[in-house]
Amino acid sequence: MKENHKSGFVNIIGNPNVGKSTLMNALVGEKLSIITSKAQTTRHRIMGIVNGDDFQIVYSDTPGVMKPHYKLQETMMNFVETAMIDADIFLYVVEGTAALKNEEITKELARTEVKLIIVLNKIDLSNQDKVMEMINHWSTEFPKAEVIPVSATEKFNIERVFNSIIDHLPFSPPYYDKEELTDKSQRFFVGEIVREKILLNYQKEVPYSTEIEVETFEETELLIKTSCVIYVSRASQKGILIGHEGKMLKKVGTEARKDMEAFFGKKIFIQLFVKVKKDWRDNELDLKQFGYIH
């Protein structure tokens, strides 16, 4: 291993729906975090690992910071708290269109000695005067931080963020095997892809009341066979999810299969089932089963 090798943990934090997952996927070059226009789509802390000859960056995408309303959201906030502790660099993602600040995050960041990069995202939705105003605002709020305007969806200025991270990474051997892309299993991504399709296809409370359990995952050289159970909190949600003559569930399965084939580079055979697990979001045993509490 080279003596001048750099490695570090880059933790991405911010309010819900500011584009943290889109930013991480752009930086990693892979779709690891699910992206929809709905808030609170990231439930777990998901790591994306980028390797070079003389560096390893371990990105961590966290749920958006919010006030918890039930036990599931409390566990999501625990993931955020651990991300505040073990970072070498923070990427604090804020919107380039408004000076919305989160008091809890800004208090924590004001106390930390960790390198801070403020990523002013969604500047494609703003204008130059507004962007300059936001750069000045955040530079005043955090004088030691670097403020970088980006558009994660358009991949604008992503390279500048990457170069700044490389500059500030500590010298260290790699923390993970150089072949690894993430700390999550293949099963995890099957579940996340199905969950993303539910978020995109259903309205109101239904997407937030679902959890995916990947029951089987069998891989051969050319094919992956998988079956998933979609749990909902109430019996009425089961009918909505399945849809008339099963059409909605079939649509979710078709869209998920196409995304999985692109993600895994193989043919996918997928089966989906729907079951009711009453009020699972407030049940500690259910949250343990789904991996939110360890």
Number of helices: 9
Span between termini: 34 Å
Number of domains: 2
CATH A-level architecture of the largest domain: 3-Layer(aba) Sandwich
CATH topology descriptor of the largest domain: Rossmann fold
Envelope shape: globular
For the record, what is the CATH homologous superfamily label of the largest domain? P-loop containing nucleotide triphosphate hydrolases
Number of β-strand runs: 9
Q: Which class of secondary structure composition applies to the elements?
A: alpha/beta
Main beta sheet: 6 strands, mixed
What's the SSE pattern? Answer: EHEEHEHEHEHHEEHHEH
Radius of gyration (CA) equals 20 Å
Estimate the helix proportion, in percent: 25-40%
Q: Which strand-content bin applies to the residues?
A: 15-25%
Low-pLDDT segments? 34-43
Folded structure, characterized:
The protein has helices at residues 20-28, 71-85, 103-111, 128-141, 158-168, 186-201, 235-242, 247-264, 284-289; strands at residues 6-14, 46-52, 55-61, 89-95, 115-121, 146-149, 211-219, 223-232, 267-276. With 294 residues, it is α/β, with parallel strands linked by helices. It is built from nine helices and nine strands. The two termini are 34 Å apart. The strands form two sheets. Strands 2-3-1-4-5-6 form a six-stranded mixed β-sheet, sandwiched between helices. It has two domains: 6-168, Rossmann fold; 186-289, 2-Layer Sandwich (GMP Synthetase, Chain A, domain 3), CATH 3.30.300. Helix 6 crosses helix 8 (247-264). Helices cover 36% and strands 24% of the residues. The longest helix has 18 residues, at 247-264. Strand 4, helix 3 and strand 5 (115-121) form a beta-alpha-beta unit.
